[in-house]
Amino acid sequence: MPKVGGNYYNEFTMEDTLKQVEELFGNAKSKNEFQFLLTILNYKHIANPDEASNLKEWFSALEFYKNLYYEKKDSEKIRIGLLLYSTFFENSDFYNIIGSLCLNTLNFGGSSRLFWKTKKQERLLGTGEKIRAIKEKLSDCNYDKLIDFFENIHYEQIRNTFFHSAYALSEDDYILFDSEPINIAGANHYRVSIQNFLFPLIDNVIAFFDKFRNEYLKAFEEYTEEKNIKGYFPNLKDVVVHGTQKGLKGITIKKASNFYGEWHDASILFDETYGFWVATNIHFSFPQEETIEIDETLTRYESKQNIKTTNAEFNNLVDKITERRFEREMIRIIDLLVKYGNEKYDKWKNETNDFKKQSIKKLALPFYEKVIEINQHLDTKEILKRISDLK
């Protein structure tokens, strides 16, 4: 298995990472099979498989680039490798599926819109923001090796300089222009070794891509017979999983919709005659779905004692709720802001090492300041006092 090494940073191996990719799918399926099925079906609207998602084209394109990468030599090889590396990190459905599988493992529903910035949906989170947003979900599921993969293998400076033609190639090095340097083991670099740094990065991306694609396709192929399961939609329902010799062809949720006093089945099925994925008797209401997703995300954070890796996902949740201004959601998010602010404040108060104490002094401030900004119901006298202490 390829390793990232040389003189740049500590050795990083892929064996444990690839094992956790397999666990990502397996644990989601065993914990909440119905939601797992909804995640892999990834249904958004009626469409043929080529148009239903950009995932199929992503699979095909990266496989094409991979074959070229192995065929080419010298500068052609590195250019194709950089195209593969950069394209790998750009696909939104890739991150949606990883994030949703984490949520399924935690017994929550997934979503095809995990990375909209706000309710207004004026933009998606950028690639770096998406990675920061899934890290907290990965941490909640103890997928530390998957976190290591994104932290050790993704360098936005490489992706950006390549896509913006802000780079040059020497015989031995990849050289960055109009870019922040790459920080490796505490040192900044504007040029990195092609052999010892870039090729190992690309090889590890290929290994991850192959494993993810194979696990995703295997999830469909394993359903070779019809089976019955239970699933919440939103109440507990009987669900028929349509497995065939060609793999998964959809699901039917029994008595899911009521029209004029009669119950009807709902389904997401592949129509063999017309070659389309079609949903029937399912009402897709974005406001209703968003309310469910926000409620489940709030519930997940209410069960967490602290934020482990990054505030990115939580801050996006705060923005969405603040825009919606629903009273119950506002109360819950303000309570969470106080909870996490207090956790960090107490950590500061209890720290006995003066150097560490100074470094964590202001961690609580963003939480407390947000409470003051959006508060509607709390007496903030104590919070204002704590803000004064921290400042």
Briefly say what this structure is:
With 391 residues, the protein is of the alpha+beta class. It has helices at 15-31, 33-41, 49-52, 55-71, 74-88, 92-105, 127-140, 144-153, 156-163, 194-221, 286-302, 312-324, 327-350, 354-359, 365-374, 381-390; strands spanning 167-169, 173-176, 182-184, 187-189, 191-193, 227-232, 236-244, 247-259, 262-271, 276-280.
Defining key terms:
10 strands, 391 residues, single chain, flat, 16 helices, alpha+beta, five-stranded antiparallel β-sheet, disordered N terminus, three-stranded antiparallel β-sheet, 3 domains
Give your account of this protein's structure.
The structure is a single chain. The protein folds into 3 domains: 15-221, no CATH class; 227-280, no CATH class; 286-390. Helices cover 55% and strands 15% of the residues. The protein has 16 helices and 10 strands. It has helices at residues 15-31, 33-41, 49-52, 55-71, 74-88, 92-105, 127-140, 144-153, 156-163, 194-221, 286-302, 312-324, 327-350, 354-359, 365-374, 381-390, and strands spanning 167-169, 173-176, 182-184, 187-189, 191-193, 227-232, 236-244, 247-259, 262-271, 276-280. A 5-stranded antiparallel beta sheet has the order 6-7-8-9-10, with helices on one face. Strands 1-2-5 form a 3-stranded antiparallel beta sheet. Strands 3-4 form a two-stranded antiparallel sheet. Strand 8 (247-259) and strand 9 form a beta hairpin. Helix 1 (15-31) crosses helix 6 (92-105), helix 5 (74-88) crosses helix 9 (156-163) and helix 13 runs antiparallel to helix 15 (365-374). Mean pLDDT is 89; it is low at 1-10.
